[in-house]
Every structure is written in structure tokens, then in C-alpha cells.
Automatic annotation (TrEMBL), chains A, B, C, D, E, F, G:
Family annotation (InterPro entries): LSM_dom_sf, MS_channel_C, MscS_beta-dom_sf, MscS_channel_2nd, MscS_channel_C_sf, MscS_channel_TM-2, YbiO_bact
Pfam families registered for this protein in UniProt: MS_channel_2nd (PF00924), MS_channel_3rd (PF21082)
The UniProt record lists the keyword Transmembrane helix: yes
Residues covered by the Mechanosensitive ion channel MscS C-terminal domain: 204-279
Transmembrane residue ranges: 28-49, 81-103, 109-138
Functional summary from the UniProt entry: May play a role in resistance to osmotic downshock.
Lipid bilayer topology: Multi-pass membrane protein
Subcellular location: Cell membrane
Source species, domain of life: Bacteria
Keywords: Cell membrane, Membrane, Transmembrane, Transmembrane helix
Protein name: Mechanosensitive ion channel protein
Amino acid sequence: MEKDTTKDVTDSVNYFTKWFKSIDWDAVISKVISVGLEILVLIILYFILKYAGSKIIKSFFKKYRRNPAVSNNRADTLEGLILNFYGYVLFFVFAILILQNFINVTAIIAGAGVASLAIAFGAQGLVSDVVTGFFILLERQLDVGDSITLDTVNGYVENLGLRTTQVRDFDGTLHFIPNRQIMIVSNHSRGNMRVLVDVAISPKADTEKAIQIIEQICEAEKNTNKNIVEMPTVLGVESSDGTNQVIRIVGTAVNGEQFGVQRDLLKKIREALLQAEIDLPIATPIVKTAQA
Amino acid sequence: MEKDTTKDVTDSVNYFTKWFKSIDWDAVISKVISVGLEILVLIILYFILKYAGSKIIKSFFKKYRRNPAVSNNRADTLEGLILNFYGYVLFFVFAILILQNFINVTAIIAGAGVASLAIAFGAQGLVSDVVTGFFILLERQLDVGDSITLDTVNGYVENLGLRTTQVRDFDGTLHFIPNRQIMIVSNHSRGNMRVLVDVAISPKADTEKAIQIIEQICEAEKNTNKNIVEMPTVLGVESSDGTNQVIRIVGTAVNGEQFGVQRDLLKKIREALLQAEIDLPIATPIVKTAQA
Amino acid sequence: MEKDTTKDVTDSVNYFTKWFKSIDWDAVISKVISVGLEILVLIILYFILKYAGSKIIKSFFKKYRRNPAVSNNRADTLEGLILNFYGYVLFFVFAILILQNFINVTAIIAGAGVASLAIAFGAQGLVSDVVTGFFILLERQLDVGDSITLDTVNGYVENLGLRTTQVRDFDGTLHFIPNRQIMIVSNHSRGNMRVLVDVAISPKADTEKAIQIIEQICEAEKNTNKNIVEMPTVLGVESSDGTNQVIRIVGTAVNGEQFGVQRDLLKKIREALLQAEIDLPIATPIVKTAQA
Amino acid sequence: MEKDTTKDVTDSVNYFTKWFKSIDWDAVISKVISVGLEILVLIILYFILKYAGSKIIKSFFKKYRRNPAVSNNRADTLEGLILNFYGYVLFFVFAILILQNFINVTAIIAGAGVASLAIAFGAQGLVSDVVTGFFILLERQLDVGDSITLDTVNGYVENLGLRTTQVRDFDGTLHFIPNRQIMIVSNHSRGNMRVLVDVAISPKADTEKAIQIIEQICEAEKNTNKNIVEMPTVLGVESSDGTNQVIRIVGTAVNGEQFGVQRDLLKKIREALLQAEIDLPIATPIVKTAQA
Amino acid sequence: MEKDTTKDVTDSVNYFTKWFKSIDWDAVISKVISVGLEILVLIILYFILKYAGSKIIKSFFKKYRRNPAVSNNRADTLEGLILNFYGYVLFFVFAILILQNFINVTAIIAGAGVASLAIAFGAQGLVSDVVTGFFILLERQLDVGDSITLDTVNGYVENLGLRTTQVRDFDGTLHFIPNRQIMIVSNHSRGNMRVLVDVAISPKADTEKAIQIIEQICEAEKNTNKNIVEMPTVLGVESSDGTNQVIRIVGTAVNGEQFGVQRDLLKKIREALLQAEIDLPIATPIVKTAQA
Amino acid sequence: MEKDTTKDVTDSVNYFTKWFKSIDWDAVISKVISVGLEILVLIILYFILKYAGSKIIKSFFKKYRRNPAVSNNRADTLEGLILNFYGYVLFFVFAILILQNFINVTAIIAGAGVASLAIAFGAQGLVSDVVTGFFILLERQLDVGDSITLDTVNGYVENLGLRTTQVRDFDGTLHFIPNRQIMIVSNHSRGNMRVLVDVAISPKADTEKAIQIIEQICEAEKNTNKNIVEMPTVLGVESSDGTNQVIRIVGTAVNGEQFGVQRDLLKKIREALLQAEIDLPIATPIVKTAQA
Amino acid sequence: MEKDTTKDVTDSVNYFTKWFKSIDWDAVISKVISVGLEILVLIILYFILKYAGSKIIKSFFKKYRRNPAVSNNRADTLEGLILNFYGYVLFFVFAILILQNFINVTAIIAGAGVASLAIAFGAQGLVSDVVTGFFILLERQLDVGDSITLDTVNGYVENLGLRTTQVRDFDGTLHFIPNRQIMIVSNHSRGNMRVLVDVAISPKADTEKAIQIIEQICEAEKNTNKNIVEMPTVLGVESSDGTNQVIRIVGTAVNGEQFGVQRDLLKKIREALLQAEIDLPIATPIVKTAQA
């Protein structure tokens, strides 16, 4: 500590300014402009290809839809998917071409350093999305327009992508679901649906008579309602306690019409039972944990 | 910064246009066509093999089903499985052949870079699916048509695959369940099923008499109902409080008929108790958290 | 772009047809037949060994069961286990022998590429199954026929395997549980079981008298019911509020008979209390969240 | 142990003081000052660049917003995002430049020691955030100002970033959500929304008449309320028990106005039913598990 | 395809039979017998060592228990543990010796192929078991006979092992808990336990008088009941609403006697309050979600 | 076994004592003292630096707070953070310097053995803490004194650290939350807050009149209460059933005053409705699942 | 198969017995004794060091506690911790010294085989425990004797260790919590605590008068109860419905006395309200989900 610190400071400042001057500013600027131009050209090319590609795909599907053997839903699914796939491929090809100017992308993708490890961990979600999405499409689990349940989401399929599935909720909300979140696909648009009505009557009412009345209504309904596939039949007394006894009716309806048929049956059975003077259950509330 | 920047720009543009001209466009186009042809041939071959293979498998099973010793469910299971397996193998073989033109697939599969790590993480779900599916089939845990419970899904098995199992819900919904989601397989179609009826009567009613009446009905039912395997017997008073006492009856029925037998017993016991003037439980509602 | 593209196409087609012709179809066919024959021989051998082995194991256990010192449950457990183990070993040995013709199995098992990583991730479930199963067997936590609770499944053990445990539910359902899902094994078939009865009486009833009556019944029951191990004793008033007071009785019964003893005690105590004119609790419902 | 320990102590102290004197304090101080200056310059540069960059970005968006074809929400989204991205890039570039003086950052990023492993594990959350955020933006799942539900959070999007999304709750709370927490994006601002009203009336009231009245009100409302898109229609009797029957009405409203339309309809239907002397449901409370 | 395929088949068959004949069956048989003998000797040795070792350990603990300074529970814990440990070490040493004949066990344990990776993943549960078990023992968290709660299991510790802990439930069930499942050990057998009684009286009853009566009973109880450690004292009015007010009493009892003391206090306080004509709470049921 | 075992024993003992004597006890002691001294010096230095550093930081912030443009909360946040950061850096630098004497810390940090793997797994929590904490600070999600919700914890921020955040609960409890546990930060101190009051009246009361009265009160309140930002307006009838109809009022208040405004409005509206003789809802309890 | 198998057997037996005889039994025995002696010496040394070390630490803390500036809780914390740390270090040093005789411990710790991988996976829990424990201590989140909540456990801290924290529940149970299970530390012994009382009165009672009475009592209580820090003030009407209105009172009490103050206030307010003839809420039960 014999020397004065002022000299140290001067030395350090000199050292720093020398380093600053030593940079070849011309080369830097020239490089910046060259790279900028390349990026510009790539971006313009990207938009041209994107626009042209989408045009071609859409016009192809316009013709494809005229084919009467092709369902509209299937065509929508395919068109959306191909557009989605084309968009991603284009985006990543150009993104890598542009990034190439700044970092050695290939080296990172092949490497095993911290960065690549972190990327591998972070990107596994993306890979899972694509793998799951791929099989959902390959196995045709979903079509655009299907009524489905995915995890906690209900609604109609709006769009199928490699990475995300878009579902339009019955209340109008649009859900974006990463495919990896899709565990069990429950598709309500594949085949006829069950009709199930539970009718509760007073515990001391005449069960036989009630069942007869219900059966007559089911018979009549079968003949008049073309949405019914299998005639609803009375299964019997499902449960019974001090306040009511429950009679269960089960049948089959055309896909998508099951709720309408149920409401119809419920209303008609109710009116018939009231006419026949079969008592309602004893008027104590069924205490429910209300939902929503 | 002595030089003018205009020159820098001109240099950069020159550099870029030179690079653009230097590309051998002939070679590029020739390569594109050659690859395109190869892919076309592969795709045609794929569809021929797929069609022919399915045909052969199906016609084989047509003969196989004539064999009286073979249950239809088992034949369905095997046919679906073999078709599914054949489809996947064909698909992946041709997919790799086609991809081979673009990327060095073998290198990636053998490599250890970021991409392969990410793929390994992402694909472990797929491997889990196949491993689990394989053992479900090997241990014959499921047959097409079985009534089952898998996790939260109830229904009939519609199709068994290496990767997914399709279950038709009782309400008509079709569930696609990746095999790895299947933890515990609960198969309701393997052997006779229990019949269990709980009858509630007034807390001060004559228990002995009620039990006698119920036993007579069980006896009679056993003789007339061929779906009953073991005669239902009265276990005794299961619980008892200020509003009712519960008598439990247990027996065994032919697989699939247990609910019908329960409804039958419930209705007959109820009528007999009302005739014998044994009181219903005190008419206060049992407050339930209603489900659905 | 000076050359005409037609020539490019012709070149490509030529290139492709040359490659097609260059394949040695004879060698391919000969190889296919040779491999086919080998697989056939292996499959036949597999079935012979499987049949013979099972036969030998079963006949051995037939003799083994005649030994009076051996419990039937233990013999069932061992027989099922050995058959299961023999089946898996045979299956995998032959599977690897057959696969050997198509892929270099040893290389994959020893390698560290993506495929093997994915397999390792996917197969860890299988290894966990076997490790857990191995210790369940080694520590004799379960025997065939035991009444158990595994996670959410109740029932009797039907079969014990290295990979899965089969449990027959009390309602007849057959559960297949991969061993790795088995966290805590709760075995209800190991030693005497507790008998616990809670009797509710009116809040203003004479507690001392009620306890006396209950103690007399316990005394009597102990003498007549040979399923009781330890005489049930009255612990005292467990809880008490504005509508009832609860008296708790605890004893021990022979394994499997505890529920019968409880039902018996409940019925007798109830009758005695009604005779002695000790009031039931005030008749307000206990609101329960009903289960099932 | 023949030597005295005092000598050991003296030796050790000497050894230690020698080491202390041997340090070249001049070099240390000079180095400290030089590094300090460099850091100072970097920090000043950082603030200049940050200020200038933000200024330029904001003034650009000022002009961009004048473009009538551009929605304000989209402009806000883009401006916030670009500012956010610019801020992060600047921060990390300068942070690495400064850290470079103390640790060999490149070595750590490329290395595979414990530190880098720990960093890779710890940083995977960060990478997941950025990957997820990137796709949310690319797929335009959210715009600033959208009404959304993310996991358990409801509100309006306040800001979209690469790492976090800021959501303003309806009650004024500001939520910061790391993008990786965003599983399913439920966007309530994309298209028309459903209007759903459930009207409960007495179980013995005249259903036909009630439905007629409700339909007249819906008709009138459709004509006067411009927020209604699709006329609300009566679906029928949704459910019915001993205390009430529920009539369901469904329609469509302009996005964001659905709750107002529902309140309006509810009030008018209620008044009309009271006027027409159609009874309210029997006055027993619906027992709910109150929320909040 | 000029050659006839028959020749191909003949060639293949020849090739196959040659391979079959080329095997040195003598060497195979000799090897099988030699290995069989070695395994036999090892198995016999294993059973001898197991029997002898257990004998020695048990006889040692017989003497050890005579030492009056040693608690029985501790001796049980140690004996069970050492037997368990000895059994596992013996088993694995001999298992590896026998397996050595079939596979190169050392190579697998040291290797890094798929098999070993899968084993490492699968076996981590086992290692976790042993590590956790080791610390539970080292820190003496449990002794055989302690009343404990582990996760969802209540009961008495029956056996402590390196891999599993056996707990006898109060209802007689025997739980086998892998040590890794043991998160928080809650030991109810370490020191005195709290006595807590909540007494509900009518909302308009004289609180001061009730507290006085309760305090007298606590005083008296303290003098007569030797299980009480700290005299129960009245904390005051814990809560109060339209139907009742709750008075809380807290004290300390000898470990294991707290429930008896609580029941005792409850009964005596109740009788005293009824005698003093202090009203019970208004007779409306407290609606509970009943458990079990 | 021809030799006597006594000789073996003697040999072994000799071997052991030789090894014991061969240790250079002088060197050991000298080393121990030298290391001890170094550690002592390091510890003293640590405490000096810690004390001096804290002093300097605190005095700096004393001056910084006099700056009127700086909010107190922000200054507290920064001061706490810098002290926290300084403390950790100092601690770890000295900890490594001291550990250096015992283990080769650098080797472990760079190594890839079991120890380092275990450390990497174990320490990832720490890294996650710091990474998350860093971004919470960088994005200014929290300030000391903010009212927040983190996961299940509510309260005021007491201290922000790189590893833990301290939150003072409204009931006085101090929560220490590792930053990695902080998923969604919900900050209640950023901007005005909503005021929401639900008023329930009798189902047959005059809705129009009630709304008029409420609107008058809102108007008056707006003029007198300076905490109100946006005048509360009546949205309309939110819901309606057999026992009540609910009118919803919504407005905005100054941050932190929203609950006071709500209580105020509730009280005044209630009084006005009672004066205007608008009936309360029918007096049946709303059954709630009580919390705490 | 020309040779007789007898010769094979004889050969095998000869081979085996030769191998058996070839073992140098002398060397084996000598080695066993030598190792045994070394272990014995190590074990004796371990117990001496453990005993002596504990003695020294305890006597040091005896003196340390006499220092009046040191709180007893802090001294307990430090003493327990140092004993715990000393015990573990000693244990592991000697354990490794002993194991060294059997396995090459260093090799395993440095290695990367299956065993070490499995150990690394299994041991990460241990490392997590120590890392978390270390920071809990460093940041002084807990002291022995503090009233705390850790996850689901409530109680007083009994002992703080590097690996486990012991908490004495209020009911006397002793919980052993591995430190890694400790997520959020909620310490109830750091500063004054809130006092919160909710008083419910009849919905039509005079609110103003009730608030006046409560305020008088709060005033009086503040003057007489020295445990109150901040005078409790009436916040206003918290909620109101058809059966009651709730008035909330909030203040601050000395740490640990908050529950006593609450009980006191509740009792006095209740009495005052009854005297002033302000009605209790309408006597309908609040239905709670009873806890324990």
C-alpha cells in the first residue's frame, strides 16, 4: 500500500479507454447492415410463402368439399390441421435461419451443456403436446364439431392442431387446451345416446299403476317421436325411502337429441301421473350442494 | 467512422446477391423431383399393403369365428388388436422411410443431443402406453364387451389397442383412454355378482316379524328367479337410529343380472311390508349431496 | 434454370427404377422363408414347454396340498405365483429369441440412444411393479383368500403375481392392480378383530341404568356366542348433545366374524333398551352426505 | 508426542502470517478499481439503452395506433410484449457482461458439473415459462383486455409477457401468473355468449301457460334489446320434484352483455308470472354450501 | 424370380437343421447339472445359516430382556430389527451368488445400459425405503407398541423393519407400510396427553353458575382420579350462538388414559348440570357430515 | 484348519497395533492447530465484514429515504433485499473457504459422482427459490407492505428475500414462504378495488321500489364518502327463488377502503329498506358449511 | 447323447468339490478376525467420543445460559442443534470407516453405476432435508418453544435438527417432521396477535344501540386487561340475512394471550347485550360440517 491509489485509477481508466478504441467499428457496422438485410429478405420470403401456401391449401379444400362422399366436419378438421402444420413448419424453418445469424443453433441442439439441458427439460412439454396431438389425429378421436369432454372442459371442437385443441364451450367461451393436458377423450358424438328419466312418486302410491301409465306414454312417444331409436322401457323401482319411490326409464335416442327426448318424456309422464291422481313425493326439499 | 456508410451497404448487398446466385438451382429442382417420386411410390405402396393386410386379417377371423369353441368377445378382441398392431407397424415403417429423405432419423434415434433428450422425455408417455397395453392384453384383463371401470370411466370395452382402449359409456359416450392412464382395471364381467338390498323400516317396528317376512320373499324369489345363484339371506340389523332401522339382505346373481334382481327384491319386499303394516321410516328426508 | 425440367424428371425416374431393379429378390425371399421357419419352430417349442411346465407345477402342488401342515391358502399363493413366474420367463425368453431376427435386441438393451432412454423411462413402471411385488411376496404381506384393502380397493385376494395382484371385490368385481399401485397393504385377515357398537339414547335418559342393561347383555352374549374372544365392555359416554347421548361398547371377535357379532349385539341391546323404556334419541334426522 | 505443542502453535502462526504477507495487495486494489470502472460504464450504458429503446418503441406504437385497421387491444398487446422482450434481452446481455468479470459464465453454461446440473434443474421452470408464453402469443390465445379464466384466476388480461401474464381480477386484485402455470386458457371474449335462465315455479302450476308467458316475453325482449343475437327459446321442463319444476330458457347475446340480458329476462319473466298468478316454488330453502 | 421357390425352402430347412445339430448337447447337459448342484448346495447353506442365525439372535435377546434397565418395547424393537436385517442380508447374498450362474450381476450393477437405467429408476423406491427406515430407527422415532399415526393409518407399532413398518390398527387390521410412505411420524406415546372437554349449554343459561359447578367437579376429579396429571381448568366460553354456548375445559392426563378421563369428566359434568337445572342446548340437531 | 486359531488372532492384533503406531501424531496435531487458526481468523473476519457491511447499507438507505420521490415501501424492499443478498454472499464465501480445509469443494462442485448427483437433486429446490425470487423482484410483483395472497397465505409482505418471502398474516402470524412455493402472486395493493354488495329481500317484495331506494343511497354515499371512486350502481336482480331475491350493487373504492365502504353501504341500505317496509327474505337459515 | 449321464454328474460333483477345497480357509479366518478387531476398536472409540462430546457441549451451554442477554429458547435451539449435528457427523465418519472393510465406499460415492444412481435417487430426500433444515436455522424461522403451524401439524417446537424437526402437538402427540416436508413455516410467536370477535344479533335488533354497548365494553376492557395492546374497535356490520346480523370487533393482544382476550370479550359482550334486551339471532341452527 506504499503507492498512491490515484495512479491505480489512472492506469485502469487508460486500460479501459484503450480497449474501447481498439474495436473495429467499421466491421461492426458493416456486419450489422449485412445481417439486417439478410433478415429482411427472409422475413419478406416468409410472408410470401405463408400467404401463397394458405391460398393453395384453402382452394384445394374448396374443391375437396364438393365431393359428396366427404363429410364437412372431416374436411374442416383436415384443412385446419394442414394449415396449422404448414404454419408451424414455415415458422420454425425461418426462425432457425434468422437465429443462425446470432447463435450457433445446431451446436446447441446437438450439445449437452446447461443451456441445452434446461431447454430439453423445458421443451419436453412441447414434445408431449405434439406426440399426443399426433395420436389423437391418427386415431381420429376427434373431429371438428364433435361434442366432447376433455378433462374439465365441455363443448364443441372448434379446431384441432398439433399443439393445441380449441374447444368452444356451450356458454360461448373458447378454450385453448395444450394436447398434453388431454388425458381421456370423451366423445359424445359417436353413435346413439341413452335416454334416462327418473320419476319420483309418493312412497305409498300404487307402484303397479304408475308403471302402467308410464309404459303407455313410452309406447306412444316411440311412435310419434322420430328421434327415439330404442323404445324407452321401465326398469323398475330404483330406490325407495320414507319420502318417495323412484321409477327409472331407459331408452336410446339419435345422437344430440337425447336431452330433448328426456325433457319431453318428463313433461308428459308428469302430466299423466297428475291426471291419474298419483301423488307427488312428500314435499320436503332434497338438499343439494348447489353447483354454480 | 471515417468511411461513408453507403459503401458498407453496397458491399453487404453485393455479398448477399452473390450468395443467392451461387446456389445450383438445377440440382435443387432435380433433387426435389426425385424425392417427390420416391415419396409417392412409398405412399401408394403403403395404402396397398394396408388394404390387403386388413382384408386378409378380417377374412381369417371370419373363419376363426365359426369355430364353436371360440367366444365371440375373444375373437373381437384379437381381431381389433391385430388390425391395430398391423396398422401402427406399417405406419411407422413407412413414416421412417419417408422422413429418411429429410432428416437422418437413425442418427437422432441413436444420438444424445437436446432434440433426442426432448424426444425421449416426450415419448416416454408413448412407451408407457405400449408397455401397459401389452400387459393388459397378455394377462387378459379385458375382453371386448366387458363391463368395466377404469379410473373415472364406466362402460363397455369397445376396442382394445396397444396405445388406447376405447370404452363405450352407458350413456353412449365413447371414451378414448391412453393405456398409461389405466391404473386399476375393475372388470365387472368375471363371475357372479353380489345382490345387496338395504330395507329401512320405522325404528319402533317389530324387527323379528319384518325379518321373517323378508326371508319368506327371498325363499320364494330363489325358486322363481333363475338369475339368482345363491339365495339372498337376511344378515340382520345393519344400523339403527331415531328415525329408522336398516335390515340388510345379501345374495348372488348371474353376472349382469344383479341390478334387475335387486330392483325385483326391493319392490316385492316393500309391498309385503306395507301389507303386513310394518311402518316406513319416519318421514324426514335423508339430506344427500345430490350427484349429477 | 436454362435446362428443361422434363429431363430432370426422366433422370429421377431412371434413378428410381435402377434402385428398384438392383435389389436381390431371391436373397430376400430365401431370407424371409428361413426366418419364418425359425419363428414357427420357436412358437411350437414355446407352447410345448408352457403346457408341460404348467402340468408339472400343478401335479406337484396336488401332492403338496396333501401335506396336513400346509394351509390351503399358502399352497394356492405359491402355485399361482410359480405358474405366473414360469409363464413370464418363458414368454420373454422366446420373445427375445424371435425379435433377435429383426432387431439387435442386445444392442438396444446395452445402448444409450433415444430409443433406449425412452424405453428406460417407459419401463420403470414395470420394474417398480416387479420390485414391489417381490417384497410383498418375500414379506408374506398377502395370501390368496385374505380380506384386504389396497388403496381404494376392498376384497379378497384372488391371485398374487410378480406384476399384478388380482382382488375379488365383495360385489363380485375382479380388480387387476399393478403392484406398484400398492402403497399400504391393509390385511384384515391377520388376528382377532375389534367389535365396536355405538348406542344412542335420549339426552335425558338414565345413563347409569342404560349402561347396566348393556353390560348384562354383553355378559350373556359372551357366554353364548363362541365368536367373541374378549368380552365387550362399556367404555362410557362417548359424546353428548341436545338430541342424544352415545354409549360405546368395545370387544374382540374371531377374525371375519366381527360384523356378525356387532349386528347381533346391536339388535339385542336395542330390544333390551326398548323393553326397559329407555328413550330413543330425539327423532331428528342425522344429515349425512350419503355415499353411493 | 515428545515435542512440546507450543512449538507447533508458533509454526502454524508463522505459516499463516507468511501467507497473508505474500499477497500482492497493489495488484488486488488495481484490479478492483479497473473492474469497478468497467461495471460503472456498463451500468450507465444499460440505462441509456433502456431509456432510448423504450422511447423508440412507444413512439412507434403511437403512430401504429392511428392506423384505423388496428384494434387498440392488439396494439397494447404488441407494445407491452415488445417492451417486455427488449427489457429482458438488455438485462441479460448486460448481466452476463458484468458477471463475466467474476465468474467464467460461458464455462458454467457449457459445463456439466454439479452447479450446472442444479442450475439446469432450477431453470427448467424459466424455460417452461418462456416456451409456453411463446406459444400463447404465437397462437394469439390472449389479447390485452380479454376477459379470461386461467386455472383459478378470473379477470381481464392487463399485460402479456414472455415469462408472466398479468391479470386484473374483477375485484381489482392484480395477479402475476408465470406462464408455465397456464394450462388451459379459457377466453370469454371470442364471439357471442350464451344466455341461460332457469325459472322455477310451483310443482302443480300450469306448465303450458307458464311456457306461453315466457315465450311472449322472450319475443318482446328480442325486438327491444339490441344485445340479443339469437332469440331466447324455451327448451322445456329441465327437472321437477316435490317442491318445484324448472323451466330452462336459452339464447345468445353480444359478447360481454350476456349477464345483463340474463338479469333483464329474469326480472321481466318473474313479474309476468306473478301477474299471471303462477305460483312460486314451495317456500323451502335450497340448502347450498355457501361460497365466500 | 427365375429360380423355383421350392429350392429356397429346402435350403432354409437344411440351414436350420444344421444349426440344430451343431449344438454340443453333452456340454449343455453337463453344465446344467453342475449349475444345478451348486444352486442346491447354496440353498441348503442358506436355510442352515438362516435357522442358526435366528436362533442365536433370539437366545441373545432372551438374556437381554432379563436386564431390568431394559424396557420390553425397546428389546422387541431391536430383536425384530436385527432379525429383519439379518434375513435381508442373507437373502441378497445368496440370491446374487445363485444369479451369478445365469447373468453377470456385477456387470449390470456397474453398467449404464437400458436395463440398469430401468432398474435404477425402479429401485429408487427401495433405496428410499431403506434410507427413511434407517433414520426412523436412528432417531428412535418409533418403538414397538407405540400408539401412532402415519399418514392415514392409526394403530400400534407391531414391527419395525428397514423396508416396511407393520402397524396393528385399533380394529385389528394389520397394515404394512413401506417406510418411504412415512412422511410425518405422529407418536402418541411420548409424554402426558391433553384432556379437552367441550360442554354445550342453553344460550340463555347462567354461565357463571355453570362454570362454578364444572370447576367443583374438576377439583373433585383431580383428587380421586390418579390418571390426571394437571387439574382440568375451565378456559371460558369458547363460542356462542342462537342455540347454545360452549364451555371448554382443558387439563393433562397420563399417556393413554386421556380418553378415559374425558369420558369420565363428560359424564359427571352432565349429571351435575342436569341436577343444577342448567338447560341443555336448544334441541336442534347439529348436522354433521357423518364419518364411516 | 491345521493351524491353531490363536496364532491368527495374535497376528491380527500385531497388524493392528503396528498400523496404529505408524501414524505420525506430530504432523496430525500440527495440522489440526494450523487449520484451527485459519478457521478462527476467517470467522473473525466474517463477523467484521458482516457488521461493517450492514452498517454501510443501512446508513445509505437512511439518506435515500429523505429523497421525497422515493416511496417508503420501495426503500424498505430494497434495503431488506440488499442486506439479505449481502448476508448470503458473505456466508457462502466464508463457508467455502472454511470447508476447503476439509474437503475438496471445487472437485465436488465440478464432479459427477453420487455425492454431487445427490447434491444437485437436493439443491434444485434452492436454485428454484433463487430464480423465482429474482424474477419476483425484477418484475416488481411485490413491495414490502403490500396486501397479498400467495397460495393459501394472506397478509402483508414483511420482507422480500432471494430465497424466502416473509408475510405477516392479518392475525399476526409470520409466514416464511420459500420463493419456489409462490406460484401465482395476487397483489391486492395495486389500484382501486371493487365494492360489491348483495342485498336479499323477500321474494314477493316490490323490486322496482327497492332498487329506487338503493340507488338513492348510493347517490348520497358517493357525495359524502371520499373513499368511493366510482359511484356504486345497481346491476339488477342477480338471482331469485322461493325464499328471497338478491339485488347486486357494484362500484369502486380507494385501495384498502373497499371493505369499509361495503360495510357502510350494507348498513345504510338495510336501514332504508326496513324504514320503507320492504320485507326481509323469508326467515329460513341459509345452511352454510362454516369455515373456522 | 451317446455318453451316459452318470459320468456327467460325477464330473460336475468333482468340479464342485475341487472348487470348495481350493479356498484358503486360513486366510479367510485370519482376515475375519482382523476385521472384527478393527470394528470393535472403532465401535468403542465411537462411544467414547460420543459421550465425551455431548458432555462438553452440554456443560458449555450450562455456562452460556447464565448470560442474561441470551434467551432460554435460543440456547435450547442451539444446544439441540449442535448435539444433533455432532451426533450425525460422528455416526457417519465411523460408519464409513467400518463399511470400508466390506465395500469400497469411495468408489461407490464417485462411481456412476446402477447402485450409485439408485442411491443418488434415493438419497435426494436426505439432501433436501439437510438443505431445507440448514436454511430454516440460518434464517431463524423457528426457535424451540415457538407455537407454529407446519403443513397440517400444529404445536410447539420441541427440537430442531438438520434432518427432522420435532413438534409437540397441543394434545401431547410428538410429531417428527422431515425438514423437506416443511413448505411454509407459519410462526405464531413473532409479535402481537389479532383479536377478532363476531357477535350475532337478531336481524331486526337496533344495530346502533348494540354497537354503542359493545364499544363501551371494549373501552372498559382495554383499561383493565393488560394483555390488550390495541383497543378493540367495532368495524361495523359484517353480514346480514334473514336470521341474524353479525357485528365484527377487531383489536390486538400480547402474543399468546389472544384467545383468552377473545373469550373474555365474548362473555362480557354477551352478558351486556342480554341485559340491554337486544335479541339473540333467530334460533335456527347453523349447520356446520363438524370437525373431529
